[in-house]
Design goal:
By secondary structure, the chain is α/β, with parallel strands linked by helices. 45% of the residues lie in helices and 7% in strands. Strands 1, 2, 3, 4, 5 and 6 form a six-stranded parallel β-sheet that branches. α11 (265-287) crosses α16 (373-384) and α15 (357-367) packs antiparallel against α16 (373-384).
């Protein structure tokens, strides 16, 4: 039997795994396993599957099951290695799955292979083939700019064309005799944004709408740092993180847009952001567990000191900084906040509160609907001075940031309506401790 183990590649389009099942003449099966430890709460009160992530995943699996029609998708919850080995003892199989992105996944695949399970891997997440990137592995670029210049050289590195979706109607389904099913806490409601509806069907629809119906790419570079709005950014990150869209498919749809409407700095910049994602992806492959160490890739980051009062205030969005609390409320409520907000949240967490950057990365991991291990940890390390940043970290001026990106307090009033009709100057005075509002006092005074 041939078994396809799905993880964050929840689609039919541009998927080598389904191709390998379609090329097989024997019985086949497909499985998604929800790791039980994702739900386990640790000593800091965190786990890996917040409400927004769980809702998106549940919707994505339901959509994939519907697209598969008569071919069943087996859903399991537990320890992935233990469950697959139990299945293998009952009915031996060769396992097909996408290559490991992070050390935890690499450990799973090593343990399965060491236990005698025949293993075949393919790529489901990157833009480029490993053979294209391999020359960079011996001296991986220390900065994104170095990476970008390599991949944008003339002749440019081609992004392989996406494979068409496979017809799986002819597959011979093998039965699974393990206890199936995932216990979902509740049926997910409608997402706060149409792009956060899980599944390949919704993701492909949103991509077409964003590019060709709304033509929102015409202002992408100018609007991507805004904090609110339906079209200020592409909102493709959740679909990419869970593999409901392949980055190659997105890249080639942007090229199709450019062929129809012309290329400019805005269309280039969306591809530029896909290259940032690619850089973090291959960096994690090269550096592995080093990224998750206190010093990160540089060994120079300040670890931070745990402060229970600060940490609890952060988790409750009660830091006393209205601008930061608004971002935290949005994140916990919806599973999303803008890239600009993420950078400011991380900067305040690390540089104002002095907390461990890895704790902040894990907080985002729990709540972000679009959590991607390489991008999330790579970006937090970047802000902390533990990653690929020639400046050795980024410390933002919160007041300057809000004067630039939310001068009318649109985002603040949306998420902290209890503040009433305050002005930007009043909020700044509160955050400096000069004249407090009817709101918790700031944990630390923000001077600039």
């Amino acid at each position: 039997m041939r078994l396809l183990w799905l993880r964050n590649d929840l689609r039919l389009d541009d998927h080598s795994g389904w191709q390998r099942l379609a090329d097989y003449s024997g019985d086949a099966a497909a499985v998604f396993i929800l790791p039980a430890h994702w739900r386990a709460t640790d000593k800091d009160g965190l786990h890996r599957l917040g409400a927004a992530r769980a809702a998106y995943l549940q919707q994505a699996l339901a959509d994939l099951s519907e697209r598969l029609a008569t071919f069943p998708l087996t859903l399991l919850e537990g320890d992935p290695v233990a469950l697959l080995l139990a299945w293998h003892r009952q009915q031996p199989f060769e396992l097909v799955t996408h290559a490991a992105q992070a050390p935890e996944e690499a450990d799973w695949l090593t343990r399965l292979s060491d236990a005698g399970v025949p293993l075949h891997t393919f790529e489901a997440q990157p833009l480029f083939d490993p053979q294209q990137v391999e020359p960079l592995f011996t001296a991986f670029p220390a900065s994104f700019t170095g990476f970008r210049k390599q991949v944008e050289k003339k002749p440019a590195w081609p992004v392989p064309a996406p494979q068409p979706a496979m017809d799986v109607s002819g597959l011979r389904a093998a039965a699974c005799h393990l206890t199936t099913g995932i216990h979902w806490p509740a049926a997910p409601g409608a997402p706060a944004h149409p792009a956060w509806l899980g599944g390949e069907t919704a993701a492909r629809g949103w991509l077409h709408h964003y590019l060709f119906e709304q033509r929102a790419l015409t202002h992408y570079k100018a609007s991507r740092n805004e904090l609110t709005g339906r079209y200020f950014s592409s909102h493709l990150s959740a679909a990419l993180a869970w593999g409901c869209l392949s980055p190659r498919a997105v890249w080639h749809r942007i090229l199709a847009y450019e062929q129809q409407w012309g290329s400019d700095e805005h269309s280039y910049w969306l591809r530029f952001e896909l290259l940032w994602r690619e850089y973090f992806h291959w960096s994690l492959r090269v550096h592995g567990s080093q990224l998750f160490a206190a010093g990160g890739l540089t060994g120079k980051a300040v670890t931070g000191v745990f402060n229970a009062e600060y940490w609890q205030a952060w988790c409750q969005a009660r830091t006393g900084w209205p601008m930061i609390d608004a971002g935290l409320k949005e994140l916990v409520t919806t599973g999303f906040c803008s890239n600009r907000l993420r950078q400011n949240l991380a900067s305040c967490f690390i540089h104002e509160l002095g907390l461990d950057w890895r704790l902040g990365a894990r907080f985002f991991e729990q709540h972000l609907v679009d959590f991607d291990v390489a991008s999330n940890w790579g970006n937090w390390a970047y802000i902390a001075g533990a990653g690929h940043d020639p400046r050795q970290g980024r410390h933002f001026s919160p007041h300057r940031q809000w004067r630039q990106y939310d001068p009318g307090l649109t985002h603040l009033h949306q998420w902290l309506p209890e503040l009433g009709p305050v002005t930007l100057e009043q909020v700044e005075r509160h955050q400096r401790g000069e004249q407090l509002l009817n709101y918790p006092a700031p944990l630390v005074l923000l001077e600039c």
